[in-house]
Design goal:
Layout lengths: L1 H17 L6 H9 L6 H13 L11 H29 L3 H39 L18 E3 L4 E7 L7 E5 L5 H13 L2 E7 L2 E2 L5 E3 L5 H17 L3 H10 L6 H27 L16 H17 L3 H17 L9 H7 L12 H11 L3 H9 L4 H8 L1
Parallel strand pairs: 1-6
Antiparallel strand pairs: 2-3, 2-4, 5-6
Length: 402
């Protein structure tokens, strides 16, 4: 019953923030996006009932055999993506016979993926749930060792996200979910039409969404990224029942906007996801794999470069030099491409979206360093989560981190 209420609450938030138009800017955006909106209601109606029903089948195998099944499944996903790319190459070359063979292989692999997805999701959910519990992260409402909200996710391609920012500052004014399979031409058209309104915008391919039940986790990622994303999106639901997360919900539905609260919430979720994802990977999967080769020292420090770009853009915008900031970002995007880092569009909306992740170089906020300082002092991950989740301002975080 409680899980059903939570699911309906999340759906309501998702609809308010992503679908229902409001006055002002939303009225201007509606004609641009209305044909491309993600069908949230239809998606939830198809997946909510099965997610709420208990699974009466055999309990997921979280031992070596179950973990090997997960590894094999991600091998199938890699095979599926490879075949799709080969089909595109064959299509360009007009190789009809090769296309027919590849499409037959793709159909076979696709059937295997579809038949295994449910079991793989349950195995990973159990592994994450057990690891969270071991770290003292159980329930945001009651001091009981019962996991809540339910750990449920769907391995699917999530919606695209349209991020809209002012041009004269970096701030996410709107985030609107769009069709997961939005064609590139439509994406470019949407961004151009938003630009004509005087705003910066970017259509982003995201890794997951926590404002649905089950949560979205992109099925186009490797295992480690999948683990991290599944944890992160669940934690957003967990935090919604804490002061910090509740304020973030108010930010999302445009009742009490706060970029600092959004950055704290996203930064906390990102840090916890990386830590829990690493623990799950090391316990369940690393023993089954060959030790990776030590990473080579990169010749180019992307993080340092991106950090400097963000700081320089902030300076230009603070001085009112909007055109210079945009020219500079375009120049730096081309420079990064010469170093092997392709970013489709580098603008205010890019930094507005990625800048909420406090630990990334796209952020110029001190919140990432403050969160790291608190984590280094906390005895357990659970203690760290509960400390930050109880905060209601960036000022409180800064004071605690001193």
């Amino acid at each position: 019953m409680i899980a059903g209420f939570v699911a309906l609450l999340l759906l309501a938030v998702f609809l308010v923030t992503s679908v229902f138009p409001r006055a002002g800017l939303d009225g201007k955006l509606q004609p641009i996006v209305k044909q491309h909106l993600f069908g949230a209601v239809e998606w939830e109606l198809a997946r909510l009932p099965p997610a709420l029903l208990p699974h009466f089948g055999r309990a997921p195998d979280t031992g070596p055999a179950g973990s090997q099944q997960v590894l094999d499944y991600f091998g199938l996903l890699r095979r599926e993506r490879s075949l799709e790319q080969q089909i595109e190459v064959a299509r360009v070359a007009f190789s009809t016979s090769e296309m027919a063979s590849l499409e037959s292989q793709l159909a076979s692999v696709g059937k295997q993926v579809k038949s295994q997805t449910g079991a793989i999701q349950r195995t990973i959910e159990r592994q994450i749930r057990d690891t969270l519990a071991a770290q003292g992260i159980h329930n945001p409402l009651l001091p009981v060792h019962v996991s809540f909200p339910p750990m449920k996710f769907a391995l699917e391609r999530p919606p695209n996200l349209l991020v809209v920012s002012p041009r004269d500052r970096i701030e996410p004014l709107r985030e609107i979910t769009l069709d997961p399979r939005l064609p590139a031409a439509d994406r470019d058209d949407i961004e151009a039409r938003v630009a004509a309104l005087g705003y910066s915008s970017l259509v982003v391919e995201i890794g997951g969404i926590g404002a649905t039940f089950p949560t979205f986790v992109n099925n186009d990622m490797g295992l480690r990224d999948t683990l991290d994303t599944a944890v992160e999106e669940w934690l957003h639901q967990y935090l919604a029942f804490k002061p910090l997360g509740f304020l973030y919900v108010l930010d999302l539905i445009d009742i009490r906007r706060s970029y600092d609260i959004a950055t704290m919430n996203e930064g906390l979720a990102d840090m916890v996801a990386e830590e829990i994802g690493g623990l799950v990977y090391q316990r369940y999967y690393a023993p089954l794999l060959e030790p990776p080769l030590p990473p080579e020292e990169p010749e180019f420090d992307f993080n340092a470069a991106m950090r400097q770009i963000r700081l320089t853009v902030d300076e230009y915008l603070a001085e009112g030099q909007v055109d210079r900031a945009e020219q500079y970002m375009a120049e730096q995007r081309r420079y990064l491409e010469t170093k092997g880092y392709y970013i489709r569009k580098l603008n205010q909306a890019y930094f507005a979206f990625y800048g909420t992740y406090a630990g990334t170089p796209a952020s110029s906020s001190p919140i990432g360093a403050e969160l790291a300082a608190l984590r280094s002092r906390a005895k357990t991950l659970g203690e760290f989560v509960n400390q930050v989740a109880g905060m209601t301002s960036a000022r409180a975080l800064a004071k605690a981190a001193r």
